[in-house]
Please model this.
Amino acid sequence: MHLNQITLLNFRNYEQATVSFNQGINIILGENAQGKTNLLEAVYFLASGKTHRTNNAEDLINLRKDFFKILVLVNNGIRENSLEVSYKKGEGKTTRINGIIKRKREDLFDQISTVFFSPDDLRIVKGGPCERREFVDEIITQIKPTYRFIKMRYVKILKQRNALFRSGLENERIVEQLSAWDEQLVSFGAKIIWKRANLLEAFNNKAKWIYQALAPQEWLTVRYQPSIGPGSSIEEIEDKFRIELEKRRMTDIELGVTSVGPHRDDFRIEVNSKDSRIHSSQGEQRCIVLSLKMAAGLLIREETETEPIFLFDDVMSELDERRRRALFNLFFKREQVIITSTSQMYFGSLLKGGKTVSLFTVSQGKVKKIGRY
Ligand SMILES: Nc1ncnc2c1ncn2[C@@H]1O[C@H](COP(=O)(O)OP(=O)(O)OP(=O)(O)O)[C@@H](O)[C@H]1O
Ligand SMILES: [Mg+2]
Model:
Protein backbone atom coordinates (compact mmCIF):
# COMPACT_ATOMS: atom_id res chain seq x y z
CA MET A 1 0.00 0.00 0.00
CA HIS A 2 1.06 3.59 -0.33
CA LEU A 3 0.12 7.05 0.85
CA ASN A 4 -1.01 9.45 -1.81
CA GLN A 5 -1.44 12.44 0.44
CA ILE A 6 -1.38 13.66 4.01
CA THR A 7 -2.98 16.78 5.48
CA LEU A 8 -2.09 17.98 8.95
CA LEU A 9 -3.98 20.55 10.97
CA ASN A 10 -2.45 21.84 14.20
CA PHE A 11 -0.35 18.72 14.61
CA ARG A 12 2.78 19.61 16.64
CA ASN A 13 4.61 22.37 14.73
CA TYR A 14 2.37 22.02 11.65
CA GLU A 15 -0.54 24.45 11.54
CA GLN A 16 -1.72 23.54 8.06
CA ALA A 17 0.18 21.38 5.63
CA THR A 18 -0.64 19.07 2.75
CA VAL A 19 1.98 16.80 1.19
CA SER A 20 1.52 14.55 -1.84
CA PHE A 21 3.74 11.49 -1.96
CA ASN A 22 4.56 9.12 -4.80
CA GLN A 23 5.15 5.41 -4.83
CA GLY A 24 8.80 4.54 -4.42
CA ILE A 25 11.07 6.70 -2.32
CA ASN A 26 10.15 10.03 -0.73
CA ILE A 27 12.90 11.95 1.01
CA ILE A 28 12.09 14.71 3.50
CA LEU A 29 15.05 17.00 4.04
CA GLY A 30 15.33 19.62 6.73
CA GLU A 31 17.48 21.09 9.44
CA ASN A 32 17.01 20.11 13.07
CA ALA A 33 13.68 20.93 14.71
CA GLN A 34 11.78 21.74 11.48
CA GLY A 35 9.20 18.93 11.55
CA LYS A 36 10.72 15.85 9.89
CA THR A 37 10.02 13.47 12.74
CA ASN A 38 6.64 15.08 13.40
CA LEU A 39 5.49 14.30 9.86
CA LEU A 40 6.34 10.59 10.13
CA GLU A 41 4.97 10.50 13.66
CA ALA A 42 1.61 11.75 12.35
CA VAL A 43 1.35 8.87 9.86
CA TYR A 44 2.42 6.30 12.44
CA PHE A 45 0.01 7.67 15.04
CA LEU A 46 -2.90 7.45 12.64
CA ALA A 47 -1.94 3.91 11.65
CA SER A 48 -1.25 2.50 15.12
CA GLY A 49 -2.60 4.85 17.79
CA LYS A 50 0.90 5.05 19.20
CA THR A 51 3.86 7.34 19.05
CA HIS A 52 7.37 6.70 20.31
CA ARG A 53 7.55 10.03 22.11
CA THR A 54 4.43 10.31 24.24
CA ASN A 55 1.47 8.40 25.64
CA ASN A 56 -0.64 11.50 25.77
CA ALA A 57 -2.39 12.58 22.56
CA GLU A 58 -2.67 16.12 23.98
CA ASP A 59 1.08 16.57 23.51
CA LEU A 60 0.47 16.25 19.77
CA ILE A 61 -1.77 19.30 19.61
CA ASN A 62 -0.02 22.44 18.43
CA LEU A 63 0.79 24.46 21.53
CA ARG A 64 -1.33 27.41 20.39
CA LYS A 65 -4.40 25.33 19.44
CA ASP A 66 -6.93 23.04 21.12
CA PHE A 67 -7.30 20.26 18.52
CA PHE A 68 -5.38 18.48 15.80
CA LYS A 69 -6.39 16.55 12.73
CA ILE A 70 -4.51 14.05 10.55
CA LEU A 71 -6.06 13.08 7.22
CA VAL A 72 -4.48 10.66 4.77
CA LEU A 73 -5.40 9.25 1.38
CA VAL A 74 -4.10 5.72 1.22
CA ASN A 75 -4.10 3.35 -1.73
CA ASN A 76 -4.36 -0.29 -0.69
CA GLY A 77 -3.96 -1.72 -4.18
CA ILE A 78 -7.69 -1.89 -4.77
CA ARG A 79 -8.95 1.58 -3.97
CA GLU A 80 -8.08 4.85 -2.32
CA ASN A 81 -9.47 5.39 1.17
CA SER A 82 -9.56 8.55 3.19
CA LEU A 83 -8.61 7.98 6.82
CA GLU A 84 -8.83 10.60 9.50
CA VAL A 85 -8.10 10.94 13.17
CA SER A 86 -8.68 14.08 15.16
CA TYR A 87 -8.26 14.93 18.80
CA LYS A 88 -9.83 17.78 20.69
CA LYS A 89 -8.97 18.84 24.23
CA GLY A 90 -11.74 17.75 26.58
CA GLU A 91 -13.48 15.66 23.91
CA GLY A 92 -10.92 13.07 22.89
CA LYS A 93 -10.41 11.26 19.61
CA THR A 94 -12.63 10.92 16.58
CA THR A 95 -11.92 8.45 13.80
CA ARG A 96 -13.34 8.59 10.30
CA ILE A 97 -13.05 6.25 7.33
CA ASN A 98 -14.22 7.76 4.04
CA GLY A 99 -16.01 10.41 6.06
CA ILE A 100 -17.94 7.98 8.25
CA ILE A 101 -17.31 8.09 12.00
CA LYS A 102 -16.03 4.80 13.45
CA ARG A 103 -16.53 3.94 17.08
CA LYS A 104 -13.58 1.57 17.33
CA ARG A 105 -10.14 2.92 16.52
CA GLU A 106 -9.04 -0.58 15.52
CA ASP A 107 -11.16 -0.16 12.39
CA LEU A 108 -8.66 2.44 11.27
CA PHE A 109 -5.63 0.27 12.06
CA ASP A 110 -7.03 -2.38 9.71
CA GLN A 111 -6.98 0.11 6.83
CA ILE A 112 -3.35 1.17 6.96
CA SER A 113 -0.18 -0.63 7.84
CA THR A 114 3.18 1.01 8.51
CA VAL A 115 6.61 0.09 9.78
CA PHE A 116 8.27 2.95 11.61
CA PHE A 117 11.98 3.27 12.30
CA SER A 118 13.16 5.88 14.74
CA PRO A 119 16.72 6.27 16.03
CA ASP A 120 15.15 5.53 19.44
CA ASP A 121 14.57 2.00 18.14
CA LEU A 122 18.25 1.30 18.65
CA ARG A 123 17.06 0.32 22.09
CA ILE A 124 15.75 -2.89 20.53
CA VAL A 125 19.41 -3.91 20.44
CA LYS A 126 20.80 -1.88 23.33
CA GLY A 127 17.91 -1.97 25.77
CA GLY A 128 16.36 -4.57 28.04
CA PRO A 129 14.20 -7.59 27.15
CA CYS A 130 11.02 -5.52 27.32
CA GLU A 131 12.03 -3.53 24.20
CA ARG A 132 12.58 -6.72 22.23
CA ARG A 133 9.33 -8.30 23.41
CA GLU A 134 7.48 -5.19 22.31
CA PHE A 135 9.12 -5.26 18.90
CA VAL A 136 8.21 -8.89 18.29
CA ASP A 137 4.70 -8.52 19.67
CA GLU A 138 3.98 -5.54 17.46
CA ILE A 139 4.80 -7.60 14.36
CA ILE A 140 2.53 -10.40 15.52
CA THR A 141 -0.28 -7.92 16.17
CA GLN A 142 0.08 -6.48 12.69
CA ILE A 143 -0.18 -9.94 11.21
CA LYS A 144 -2.91 -11.11 13.55
CA PRO A 145 -4.78 -8.25 15.25
CA THR A 146 -6.50 -10.56 17.79
CA TYR A 147 -3.08 -11.17 19.37
CA ARG A 148 -3.57 -7.77 21.04
CA PHE A 149 -6.44 -9.24 23.09
CA ILE A 150 -4.54 -12.38 24.05
CA LYS A 151 -1.78 -10.19 25.43
CA MET A 152 -4.18 -7.88 27.21
CA ARG A 153 -5.85 -10.84 28.91
CA TYR A 154 -2.51 -12.31 29.92
CA VAL A 155 -1.30 -9.03 31.44
CA LYS A 156 -4.57 -8.58 33.33
CA ILE A 157 -4.45 -12.09 34.82
CA LEU A 158 -0.79 -11.62 35.72
CA LYS A 159 -1.63 -8.41 37.57
CA GLN A 160 -4.48 -10.05 39.46
CA ARG A 161 -2.28 -13.00 40.34
CA ASN A 162 0.45 -10.72 41.68
CA ALA A 163 -2.12 -8.63 43.56
CA LEU A 164 -3.30 -11.83 45.27
CA PHE A 165 0.27 -12.45 46.47
CA ARG A 166 0.30 -9.03 48.05
CA SER A 167 -3.24 -9.21 49.45
CA GLY A 168 -2.11 -10.11 52.97
CA LEU A 169 -4.08 -13.37 52.91
CA GLU A 170 -2.55 -16.43 54.54
CA ASN A 171 -0.46 -18.57 52.19
CA GLU A 172 -2.97 -21.41 52.36
CA ARG A 173 -5.80 -19.17 51.19
CA ILE A 174 -3.63 -17.79 48.41
CA VAL A 175 -2.81 -21.29 47.16
CA GLU A 176 -6.52 -22.18 47.19
CA GLN A 177 -7.37 -19.23 44.99
CA LEU A 178 -4.36 -19.57 42.72
CA SER A 179 -5.48 -22.55 40.69
CA ALA A 180 -8.24 -20.56 38.97
CA TRP A 181 -5.79 -17.84 37.92
CA ASP A 182 -3.08 -20.27 36.95
CA GLU A 183 -5.17 -22.15 34.43
CA GLN A 184 -5.95 -18.93 32.60
CA LEU A 185 -2.38 -17.68 32.87
CA VAL A 186 -1.15 -20.95 31.39
CA SER A 187 -3.69 -20.90 28.60
CA PHE A 188 -3.02 -17.33 27.39
CA GLY A 189 0.71 -17.51 28.19
CA ALA A 190 1.25 -20.64 26.11
CA LYS A 191 -0.46 -19.00 23.13
CA ILE A 192 1.92 -16.03 23.38
CA ILE A 193 5.00 -18.24 23.54
CA TRP A 194 3.75 -20.36 20.64
CA LYS A 195 3.16 -17.28 18.48
CA ARG A 196 6.52 -15.75 19.30
CA ALA A 197 8.39 -18.98 18.56
CA ASN A 198 6.58 -19.47 15.27
CA LEU A 199 7.13 -15.95 14.09
CA LEU A 200 10.88 -16.11 14.47
CA GLU A 201 11.54 -18.85 11.96
CA ALA A 202 10.06 -16.96 9.03
CA PHE A 203 11.35 -13.67 10.39
CA ASN A 204 14.96 -14.83 10.62
CA ASN A 205 15.03 -15.95 7.01
CA LYS A 206 14.20 -12.44 5.93
CA ALA A 207 16.34 -10.55 8.45
CA LYS A 208 19.34 -12.62 7.44
CA TRP A 209 19.44 -11.74 3.75
CA ILE A 210 18.52 -8.11 4.37
CA TYR A 211 21.39 -7.75 6.82
CA GLN A 212 23.72 -9.47 4.40
CA ALA A 213 22.85 -6.88 1.79
CA LEU A 214 24.09 -4.23 4.24
CA ALA A 215 26.98 -6.18 5.71
CA PRO A 216 28.20 -9.01 3.47
CA GLN A 217 29.54 -12.10 5.22
CA GLU A 218 27.60 -11.36 8.40
CA TRP A 219 24.76 -13.48 9.74
CA LEU A 220 22.01 -11.85 11.72
CA THR A 221 19.85 -14.12 13.86
CA VAL A 222 17.21 -13.40 16.45
CA ARG A 223 17.16 -16.23 18.94
CA TYR A 224 14.16 -16.73 21.15
CA GLN A 225 14.94 -17.21 24.81
CA PRO A 226 11.59 -18.16 26.28
CA SER A 227 11.37 -18.30 30.03
CA ILE A 228 9.68 -21.67 29.58
CA GLY A 229 11.54 -24.20 27.43
CA PRO A 230 10.13 -24.37 23.90
CA GLY A 231 7.58 -27.00 22.99
CA SER A 232 6.39 -28.63 19.80
CA SER A 233 2.74 -27.81 20.50
CA ILE A 234 0.69 -25.37 22.55
CA GLU A 235 -0.32 -28.23 24.86
CA GLU A 236 3.30 -29.08 25.56
CA ILE A 237 4.08 -25.46 26.43
CA GLU A 238 1.02 -25.35 28.68
CA ASP A 239 2.23 -28.42 30.55
CA LYS A 240 5.73 -27.00 31.01
CA PHE A 241 4.35 -23.65 32.13
CA ARG A 242 2.01 -25.30 34.64
CA ILE A 243 4.82 -27.36 36.14
CA GLU A 244 7.12 -24.32 36.44
CA LEU A 245 4.41 -22.28 38.15
CA GLU A 246 3.88 -25.02 40.67
CA LYS A 247 7.58 -25.46 41.30
CA ARG A 248 8.02 -21.78 42.00
CA ARG A 249 4.76 -21.27 43.84
CA MET A 250 6.10 -20.76 47.37
CA THR A 251 9.01 -18.49 46.38
CA ASP A 252 6.69 -16.47 44.12
CA ILE A 253 4.25 -15.97 47.02
CA GLU A 254 7.17 -14.99 49.24
CA LEU A 255 8.50 -12.43 46.73
CA GLY A 256 5.09 -11.27 45.50
CA VAL A 257 5.89 -11.80 41.80
CA THR A 258 5.30 -14.31 39.03
CA SER A 259 8.83 -15.32 38.13
CA VAL A 260 8.07 -17.34 35.03
CA GLY A 261 6.03 -16.75 31.87
CA PRO A 262 6.18 -14.90 28.57
CA HIS A 263 6.50 -11.60 30.45
CA ARG A 264 10.04 -12.79 31.27
CA ASP A 265 10.98 -13.84 27.73
CA ASP A 266 13.94 -12.36 25.91
CA PHE A 267 15.32 -12.45 22.37
CA ARG A 268 19.04 -12.59 21.75
CA ILE A 269 20.10 -10.65 18.70
CA GLU A 270 23.24 -12.16 17.25
CA VAL A 271 25.62 -11.31 14.46
CA ASN A 272 27.84 -14.25 13.55
CA SER A 273 26.70 -15.91 16.79
CA LYS A 274 27.88 -13.01 18.96
CA ASP A 275 25.49 -11.01 21.14
CA SER A 276 25.13 -7.72 19.26
CA ARG A 277 24.17 -5.88 22.44
CA ILE A 278 27.74 -6.34 23.62
CA HIS A 279 29.73 -6.70 20.42
CA SER A 280 28.24 -4.50 17.68
CA SER A 281 29.41 -1.00 16.84
CA GLN A 282 27.06 1.98 16.66
CA GLY A 283 26.73 1.74 12.86
CA GLU A 284 26.26 -2.00 13.03
CA GLN A 285 23.51 -1.67 15.63
CA ARG A 286 21.75 0.76 13.35
CA CYS A 287 22.03 -1.67 10.43
CA ILE A 288 20.70 -4.44 12.65
CA VAL A 289 17.63 -2.45 13.67
CA LEU A 290 17.04 -1.30 10.09
CA SER A 291 17.23 -4.93 8.96
CA LEU A 292 14.83 -6.03 11.70
CA LYS A 293 12.35 -3.36 10.62
CA MET A 294 12.62 -4.21 6.93
CA ALA A 295 12.23 -7.89 7.73
CA ALA A 296 9.14 -7.07 9.79
CA GLY A 297 7.64 -5.26 6.82
CA LEU A 298 8.36 -8.12 4.42
CA LEU A 299 6.91 -10.68 6.78
CA ILE A 300 3.76 -8.59 7.23
CA ARG A 301 3.51 -8.39 3.45
CA GLU A 302 3.84 -12.15 3.12
CA GLU A 303 1.25 -12.89 5.80
CA THR A 304 -1.31 -10.20 4.99
CA GLU A 305 -0.68 -9.79 1.26
CA THR A 306 -0.27 -6.06 1.78
CA GLU A 307 3.06 -4.32 1.95
CA PRO A 308 3.25 -1.78 4.77
CA ILE A 309 4.46 1.77 4.20
CA PHE A 310 8.02 2.17 5.49
CA LEU A 311 8.55 5.32 7.56
CA PHE A 312 12.24 5.63 8.34
CA ASP A 313 13.32 8.62 10.39
CA ASP A 314 16.85 10.02 10.21
CA VAL A 315 17.94 6.87 8.54
CA MET A 316 21.28 7.66 6.92
CA SER A 317 23.29 9.13 9.77
CA GLU A 318 26.07 6.98 11.20
CA LEU A 319 26.16 4.82 8.08
CA ASP A 320 29.17 4.78 5.79
CA GLU A 321 28.82 5.39 2.06
CA ARG A 322 28.71 1.70 1.14
CA ARG A 323 25.96 0.90 3.64
CA ARG A 324 23.95 3.94 2.61
CA ARG A 325 24.06 2.74 -0.98
CA ALA A 326 23.09 -0.80 0.01
CA LEU A 327 20.21 0.49 2.12
CA PHE A 328 18.98 2.71 -0.67
CA ASN A 329 19.02 -0.24 -3.04
CA LEU A 330 16.78 -2.10 -0.60
CA PHE A 331 14.44 0.88 -0.50
CA PHE A 332 14.16 0.86 -4.29
CA LYS A 333 12.53 -2.56 -4.08
CA ARG A 334 9.73 -1.41 -1.77
CA GLU A 335 6.35 -0.06 -2.79
CA GLN A 336 6.73 3.10 -0.72
CA VAL A 337 9.35 4.40 1.65
CA ILE A 338 9.24 7.81 3.31
CA ILE A 339 12.54 8.79 4.86
CA THR A 340 13.93 11.88 6.53
CA SER A 341 17.40 13.29 6.64
CA THR A 342 19.22 16.48 7.56
CA SER A 343 21.45 16.36 4.52
CA GLN A 344 20.92 15.99 0.81
CA MET A 345 24.59 15.04 0.53
CA TYR A 346 23.78 11.52 1.67
CA PHE A 347 21.76 10.96 -1.49
CA GLY A 348 23.91 12.64 -4.14
CA SER A 349 24.64 9.76 -6.48
CA LEU A 350 22.01 7.37 -5.15
CA LEU A 351 18.94 8.93 -6.67
CA LYS A 352 19.09 7.33 -10.08
CA GLY A 353 17.99 3.77 -9.50
CA GLY A 354 14.98 3.16 -11.66
CA LYS A 355 12.13 3.95 -9.27
CA THR A 356 10.71 7.36 -8.62
CA VAL A 357 12.35 9.42 -5.91
CA SER A 358 10.78 12.66 -4.71
CA LEU A 359 12.62 15.21 -2.63
CA PHE A 360 10.92 17.56 -0.20
CA THR A 361 12.21 20.15 2.21
CA VAL A 362 10.59 21.07 5.48
CA SER A 363 11.18 24.30 7.30
CA GLN A 364 9.22 25.46 10.34
CA GLY A 365 6.34 23.14 9.60
CA LYS A 366 6.09 24.05 5.90
CA VAL A 367 6.80 21.32 3.34
CA LYS A 368 7.92 22.04 -0.23
CA LYS A 369 8.57 19.60 -3.03
CA ILE A 370 11.95 20.40 -4.59
CA GLY A 371 12.53 17.64 -7.09
CA ARG A 372 11.66 14.35 -8.68
CA TYR A 373 14.07 11.86 -10.20
N1 LIG B 1 2.79 20.24 20.42
C1 LIG B 1 3.66 21.00 19.75
N2 LIG B 1 3.32 22.26 19.34
C2 LIG B 1 4.20 23.02 18.65
N3 LIG B 1 5.45 22.63 18.33
C3 LIG B 1 5.84 21.42 18.73
C4 LIG B 1 4.97 20.54 19.46
N4 LIG B 1 5.64 19.39 19.70
C5 LIG B 1 6.87 19.54 19.16
N5 LIG B 1 6.99 20.74 18.57
C6 LIG B 1 8.16 21.30 17.87
O1 LIG B 1 8.28 20.77 16.58
C7 LIG B 1 9.60 21.05 16.12
C8 LIG B 1 10.03 19.99 15.13
O2 LIG B 1 10.19 18.74 15.77
P1 LIG B 1 10.70 17.45 15.00
O3 LIG B 1 10.97 16.42 16.04
O4 LIG B 1 9.78 17.09 13.92
O5 LIG B 1 12.08 17.97 14.39
P2 LIG B 1 13.02 17.28 13.31
O6 LIG B 1 12.89 18.05 12.04
O7 LIG B 1 12.78 15.85 13.28
O8 LIG B 1 14.45 17.62 13.94
P3 LIG B 1 15.76 16.69 14.17
O9 LIG B 1 16.57 16.79 12.93
O10 LIG B 1 16.45 17.41 15.30
O11 LIG B 1 15.33 15.34 14.51
C9 LIG B 1 10.47 21.13 17.36
O12 LIG B 1 11.03 22.41 17.43
C10 LIG B 1 9.49 20.92 18.49
O13 LIG B 1 9.76 21.74 19.60
MG1 LIG C 1 13.80 14.23 14.07
